[in-house]
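Re-running the complex after MR caught last week's input typo. The corrected sequence lines follow. Everything else is unchanged.
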Amino acid sequence: MKEKNIIAKKEFNLKSFFFQWEWMLVLLFVVINIINTFLSPYYLDPKKLLDATMTFLDKAFIVLPMVFVIILADIDISVASTVALSAVVMAVSYNLGVPMALAIIICLLVGTLCGFLNGLLIVKFKELSAVIVTLSTMIIYRGIAYIILEDQASGKFPAWYKFLGWGYVGGIPFILIVFAVFAVVFGLLLHKTTFGRRVYAMGNNITASRFSGIQVDKIKVIVFTLTGFMSAVTALFLTSRMGSTRPNVASGYELDVIAMVVLGGISSTGGKGKLTGAIISIFLIGFLRYGLGLKNVPAQALLIIIGLLLIFAVMIPNLKFNFKKWGKVQKTS
Amino acid sequence: MKKVLALILAVIMMVSLLAGCAAPQPASTNTETQTTTTEQKPEAKKKFAFIFKNTGNPYGEKQMDGFKTAIEELGGEAILKAPDQPTAEAQIQMIEELIAQKVDCIALTGNDPDALQPALKKAMDAGIKVLSADSAVNAQSRMVHVNQADPERIGRVEVQAVVEMIGGSGEIAVLSATSQATNQNTWIEWMKKELEDPKYKDVKLVKVAYGDDLRDKSVSETEALLKSYPNLKGIIAPTTVGIAAAGKVLTDKGLKGKVQLTGLGLPSEMAEYIESGVCPWMYLWNPIDVGYLTGYAAFALVEGKITGKVGDKFNAGKLGDKEVIADGDGTQIMLGDPFKFDAKNIGEWKSVY
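Corrected-run output:
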């Protein structure tokens, strides 16, 4: 297993190329789009579809580093609280007279710091699992946000800040462009660098990785710090869309994000999966929600449908695993 | 067997790829052309959407019922939506969906007065009539607001009630909905103004707690209030979810008579506590009528009978004629005075709503 992922170059095999989870997702994506198109006459409108991406892409920024975290066989459930804390600190510092540009940098710093702290705690206290550490920081970060703002909202940002969440560049939502750039960067990082290969190696066998000279602690801290940073990016876009922020923003985002990653075929036992899968599943869930929303499906029914989709996603890899033997080789990038 | 299965999957994939749809595909595959377009003609019936704060709120369901009744009386199609969480994020998403559906009118009870402005402006730019009901959005984001009752009367009357119940002196607390709920915040402002009167010098408002209109959070906030303020004598809960949660906590802890409860509640949910005396009396208007009036106002906006200017008049079905009046820098339509429910009349109202 491990060897397969570490060796970058492999001979191309058409059969196995098509028997990948990512293709399953593409298929599912196509099916959902076709169903949506038939369900609602309003669905297939390119401009409206682009607009729809604006409503779900904010959390997508966290999906990218979360892929790394889950490949490491770890988990980070503090991301939503990190979003809330960095958004709240940004809003409060802006309203205390800090220039907006500086407030944005503060927001990114707070997020990065939160992530760094998670990473540090996880590598320093090895007896604690990532889920316990981030569960505690989830409560702590959210708590700090509540202490700062209590139950109030803070906002009144300058007009240009709205552009982040609502603006277009050449007819394409700005948020989509930024996401695409980040997606490419993270894709290259995971699939084209030694750093990425080491992440896979650690996810497959951390002891072996340590003995082969990989600085496992350093990599873990970097990955969690990245997650914090991207949570702050989400905070920027979410706050821009909302025009104001509250300590309870982004509640439930951690589960949405993890759901997207798992549906993307990234194995929660670590070492398996690709970034493309997670990216496809962001759009899959996003468009599914949008399509069902157009049909005015009640909110609870929507949750059930997404839940079923997840169970399906967890079940299918077992099936896939069988015919992967038949396909034998997996392409890494 | 596995081969067969794999083969079938492969065939399905190929077919769907050929059927073609603009899907983001991993690199190194050829792009497909977009061929699936199904254009159906939208129905002739005008579409009126109503977005409530969140699901699972009986008060909201009554309001949506009223809205639906009005729209159906007028021959339109009613679309009722509510997000699973009482957040502005979720409402923004629903507004986007409704804009895409090209509805004629969006009525909503806002989860945040300002956060919905960009989305609602976008809707109005698309020619959709926008009005808020019950919980207002700011004046720039709406054409008119349907107000259930004069906020000043609601705020003052609740303070007067609780002070009478606790005998004129002691600590009181407020259990509200979310900290951003416009209607509750306005009422709380008026409560504070009423409390400034020197005759309330022995009454102290110790805390405004937020139960977010979620039953479990309202219960835990009530418990927290009772723990933090052991001398607490009265709770005002100007939200139907909050008052029911507080009623349950006070009943379970056997605090009947020690801590008084009043506020705004649904008779059907509160009958038990009013009859037992945990909540001596409370107030509300008819949420069905709020929805019904919103429906008629929405229809009048779409028909062009009113534009949301002060002085506009329209007929609101069984509620008679209504007039648009000023409200801060916006305009509103008022339903009426809050109605008092006590042990005498609760019996007849609990089966109504």
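None of the earlier attempt is carried over here. Residues 14-43 of chain B have pLDDT under 50 and may be disordered. DSSP finds eleven helices and 14 strands in chain B.
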